[in-house]
Specification:
Elements (H helix, E strand, L loop, with lengths): L1 H19 L3 H14 L4 H19 L8 H26 L3 H14 L4 H15 L4 H13 L2 H4 L6 H5 L3 H5 L8
Helix pairs in contact: 1-2, 2-3, 3-4, 3-5, 4-5, 5-6, 6-7
Amino acid sequence: SPEESERVVRRMNVAVGHLENEEFAKAEPLLEELAKEVPDKIAPLRNLAICRVLMVRDLALGAGARTAPQDWDEAMRGAVGKARATIDGLIDAEGDSAVALWLRGKVELLASPESGLAAGAVYLERAAAREPGNVVVRWELYDASRYAPPARSRSRSVPRNWCTSPTSRDFAAMSPTLPA
């Protein structure tokens, strides 16, 4: 019904507002509800995946620094698990989209900077193959290569010349990369 649709749109706007304001603890339950309520719409699930990746990012960057190490480890494992599961659901729902693969690559890189580098690069390469002109994905590949040990940074996983040689198509692709 139109009233039901309007209510869903209002709730989605509130959830995205929380997401944009980096109020992830408020956004996550709303997005999770919406993803279950309207499973035929991809936007709630995609935004839930983005929210959970950003929650992992915050933990990885020290947002949990005030907690005991074992509490942080447990929180990080839980956040990474939820993010991976949500992204797997997104991949199931929309296939190997560049957005879903990019998000999975981010999670792998954040989850374990050393061991996650190879796994993250694989997902980022797949995302780049889906959208060769996507500069966000190319930046992630380049950024990952900067932190790779020298032997790994020269591997096939992160080809430096490919990452650092933009073309005119790259600049045309700078439009928003996370469609609703």
